[in-house]
Amino acid sequence: MLQxxxxxxxxxxxxxxxxxxLAEVVPGVERTLMVELLADAFVESFTGSVRDGNLNGLIxxxxxxCDVHAETPGVATFFSRVCPAFESYLANHGYDxxxxxxxxxxxxxxxxxxxxxxxxxxTSDGKLNLVDAAINSMLVRLDGADPLTAEHSRxxxxxxxxxxxxxxLSDEMVSFVARCGMIHDIxxxxxxxxxxxxxxxxxxxxxxxxxxxxxxxxxxxxxxPSLLQFAPMVRGHHERLDGRGYPDKIGGDEIALATRIVTVxxxxxxxxxxxxxxxxxxxxxxxxxxxxxxxxxFDPDVAAAMHDVVREIEAAKAEPATDA
Length: 324
Hints:
Elements: H1 7-11, H2 15-23, H3 33-52, H4 55-68, H5 75-92, H6 101-115, H7 124-145, H8 147-166, H9 171-183, H10 193-196, H11 204-211, H12 213-222, H13 231-236, H14 257-272, H15 283-292, H16 300-318
Helix pairs in contact: 2-3, 2-5, 3-4, 4-6, 5-6, 7-8, 8-9, 8-14, 8-16, 9-14, 14-15, 15-16
């Protein structure tokens, strides 16, 4: 039996970067949103499997994902290449060779699972494939209009996934909330670039344009029937619990949990991210802002979950990379 190692503690701190690197094993034309989500899930599943000493569970998960997404471009390619790519990342970033042992043990079985012939069948999972293709198309559109906003959206999706897991939501809800995060700012394709990147505080007229991205995003999403489920969140991610948000000034229980999660993830990432008009805040300072506005702007439970998520990441960063 493979010896357990605390690899998850050090990898957790760099999970987002690792997942982005792993997704790059799939050629650009096949690198859909589903591949990016699977890359994030693979890192999560790998660390959990090593922590628990159960690599068979990860192999079974890969086999199941290959079945579910038999029609999705890039999925089999991703899994057939993921272990060598992960090992290369670890080696290039100074991880002890012992960290690569689980990946070497997994490479053969995962590659075999990825190459297994699958029967393409469009069941209810086919609807998910259509959704992911539509979201990926939206993200490509956003990337073309404003790469910084697209980068922010990917980061928000990752924070949403972490928050949903911390709140012990179902796997289905974790995926839904991550997709919400990915698509929440699609309306900014209609916002003038000089407003998005203004190196100063916006005027009242410019703020009107900026706030309108929620309404425009709602219209864009509703134009695609496969994305209707995301429309309330796209429209409502700047609403507040106290009813003082926009565009509809709804509050309290009128705001769904998925929207509350996106709101916290969006604001937190905006605060710690680079902006033309200010330097990034530290995570500690951003958490203080969440606390200052919980119960009015932010859901207290989601804000508390963000504290836990950040604490786990900071603890992981403190672990020496060569521990084994």
